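Late entry, FE2/S2 (inorganic) cluster complex.
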Amino acid sequence: MTILRVCRLIEVPEGEAKRFVVRNFDVAVYNLGGRVYATDDTCTHGPSSLSDGYIEGDTIECPFHYGSFHIPTGKPIKFPCTIPLQVYQTQIIDGDIFIVVN
Ligand code: FES
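Prediction complete; structure with ligand written out below:
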């Protein structure tokens, strides 16, 4: 298990998703009503950046083909997305957001 720093909390305003490069992969960080979540940024259906998508409640809609995922669990909830999205446990320490990777 490894804990990686992603960004400052203030870089992800409430209700938004932002993309960050952590080591060699892209991570989408979401601020949903002050709760912070992180997933892989790349859609499991194609090469789209989910942080460019649309947040509705606790879901993210992909901007390419409008499939969607449940952000806290990564579960696909709308076709054509059928493969779960990798989610990362988050921690906030002194205003920095960290993710836990295996
Ligand atoms: Fe995301 Fe197709 S690339 S729904």
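The first strand starts at residue 2 and ends at 8. Will revisit in the morning.
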